[in-house]
Amino acid sequence: MKKNILALPLIALAALIAIAPVAGSAAPAPRNAEQMKALDYLIGTWNCSFSAGGQSGTNVSTFTPVMDGAWLQETEAVRTKSGGLYVTTMHYTGYDPDEKRYMHVGPDANGGYEVAYTTDFQTFHTLLPAGQEDATFTKVSDTEFSLREPFTQDGRHMVYLNTCKKAP
């Protein structure tokens, strides 16, 4: 029997090609890709200032697409006026095509959390914690937004105001 010395390397090469990922192939777009594209202007770093009750300070928010673009992750480091770290949060915003609304969920490093939804990306209806009022997100431009969030703390009604400008 005559051996073909090229046959084994060719068989091995064919096997590698068959199991190797296709170069340049990407994961399929998520079902909410079209709606998430509307939030692309948020991607990047934002420098913000806030006031809430008698407190004020700054925060840096960074928005990054995650899970193949199905969600937008926001990390936020909030500092008091004196520069001390007040709280760190991580929020996720995604679009639920079945419910036809954006969902916003996020825990913070103080053990708190929030779950809200919006159909217009302006009025956010808080589901949890229960009893919180609606928040208002205002897109001023692709490089500026504000957020107004009424809340109750220790029996006092207060408003969290946050204004943000996109970092260059």
Task: Report the radius of gyration as a whole number of Å.
Answer: 23 Å
What would CATH call the class?
Mainly Beta
Output mean pLDDT.
Answer: 85
**Helix residue percentage:** 10-25%
Q: What are the defining features of this structure?
A:
globular, 2 helices, Lipocalin, disordered N terminus, 168 residues, mainly beta
Describe this structure in words.
With 168 residues, the protein is mainly beta. It has a single domain, classed as Lipocalin (Beta Barrel), CATH 2.40.128. It has 2 helices and 10 strands, in the order ααββββββββββ. A 10-stranded antiparallel barrel has the order 1-2-3-4-5-6-7-8-9-10. Strand 3 and strand 4 (85-96) form a beta hairpin. The longest helix has 13 residues, at 7-19. Mean pLDDT is 85; it is low at 1-22.
List the helices and strands and how they pair.
Elements: H1 7-19, H2 33-37, E1 44-52, E2 55-66, E3 71-80, E4 85-96, E5 101-107, E6 113-118, E7 123-128, E8 135-141, E9 144-153, E10 156-166
Antiparallel strand pairs: 1-2, 1-10, 2-3, 3-4, 4-5, 5-6, 6-7, 7-8, 8-9, 9-10
